[in-house]
Task: structure prediction
Amino acid sequence: MVLKKGNGMSAYQREVMSAWAEFLKVVRYECVNVQQVWEQPLFLNPRITHEQCSLFNLPIWRRVPGFMRAQVIVDEVREIDEMMRLGTAESLLEKIKVGMPSG
Result:
């Protein structure tokens, strides 16, 4: 996976995240109950996708420790002076819900 330049990450961060994405492709795990799904890495996880692409959002990745309501995500991200609209957080949460593995 190659992350785009200009997304707010340094070349080092892009390289680390790309390596993490490659690593996750070979990790085998089961998601047979809700608790196991919540414990999985969210971003760049090949099992949680939207339109066959792994999810990634830099401001949320930098600031939000886990699953939260959309308004809480917006408030957390804005604490570090990054603009985030409520609609952006709601859209990402919807993509996560749709992309979660079933079963």
Notes: Residues 11-99 form one domain.
